[in-house]
Design brief:
Length: 293
């Protein structure tokens, strides 16, 4: 239990930093270029590893499920998230991510037979209350020119993320977390490649070394490190319990946004962050599983 939880904590910490990195990247280059670059970097790194480890055999019945998983995330997920970060702050986008566990728990209850206990549900709702408070306590800045639109796009990304997590949980019984992460990167790169031919793909903001470094960070540490560790943790824990760690992202993203981007972090947000942490602690109270090992 300790190792999967440690992997999940590390993953969400890196994930929280991805909001800052993505914010820097999309303010320098178009979202299409940023996401393709991110997926391309990850694909190259995974290909180098595959030359030594080999490629596992995929069962024909799983091909459609694997492709659907990759369509949910990274393909559609990052379209919504990249544009969301053009209109809202990194910290607010991270806050919206906390609704993901509730979505996953609801879908996992129906499709995977996972039955969260009352304590788990209570923890989820406490965490979401903390997220709402965290958002309400924030102040408008130049980092969020249209937060309503940006947060709505981030919510759409969470819907895609829900489909991804449930499908990943189903596939993790047959395939390694690292293989599934590699598939995400390769399919994502191929998905965004045609977009480079579109004129809008080359409408940039303020290109520079900061944007390039952000893309490299996203493709290596986030796409490989965070996803790999999260997929490992998810393969060892129930989907609804593993997804509860996502509630740490708004707190970590808000702190990083304040320190690295100068986004406002008020006293109210600090108190709300504590509520989110309490909710995460409550949600780890366990759950009953039916037909899920």
């Amino acid at each position: 239990m300790f190792v999967p939880c440690l992997a999940l904590v590390t993953a969400v910490t890196i994930w929280a930093s991805s909001y800052v990195a993505m914010k820097i990247a999309v303010m320098a280059y178009s979202p299409v270029v940023v996401i393709f670059g991110r997926m391309a970097v990850a694909s190259i790194l995974f290909s180098l590893v595959a030359l030594r480890t080999g490629i596992p055999r995929v069962q024909r019945k799983d091909v459609g499920v694997i492709l659907l998983m990759a369509l949910c995330e990274p393909c559609l997920y990052f379209i919504f998230e990249a544009y969301a970060l053009r209109y809202t702050s990194a910290s607010q986008a991270g806050m919206v991510a906390a609704v993901l566990p509730l979505m996953v728990a609801a879908v996992a209850f129906v499709s995977l037979g996972e039955r969260p206990r009352a304590r788990t549900w209570a923890g989820f709702f406490v965490a979401v209350f903390g997220v709402v408070w965290l958002s309400a306590a924030g102040e408008s800045t130049e980092h969020a020119p249209n937060p309503v639109l940006g947060n709505a796009l981030e919510l759409a990304a969470m819907v895609c993320g829900t489909g991804y997590m449930v499908l990943l949980k189903r596939l993790s019984a047959s395939y390694s977390p690292w293989f599934l992460t590699a598939v995400q990167a390769i399919v994502g790169a191929l998905f965004y490649l045609p977009g480079l031919a579109m004129p809008f793909a080359w409408v940039h903001g303020d290109p520079g070394m900061g944007g390039i470094l952000a893309i490299l960070y996203l493709g290596s540490f986030v796409s490989i490190g965070a996803y790999g560790m999260y997929n490992y943790g998810l393969s060892r824990l129930p989907a609804s319990q593993a997804s509860a760690f996502i509630n740490l992202i708004p707190v970590l993203a808000a702190v990083m946004g304040t320190v690295l981007l100068g986004e406002t972090f008020t006293t109210g947000q600090i108190a709300a962050s504590a509520v989110v942490l309490v909710g995460v602690w409550l949600s780890q109270g366990g759950l009953r599983r039916v037909g899920v090992e």
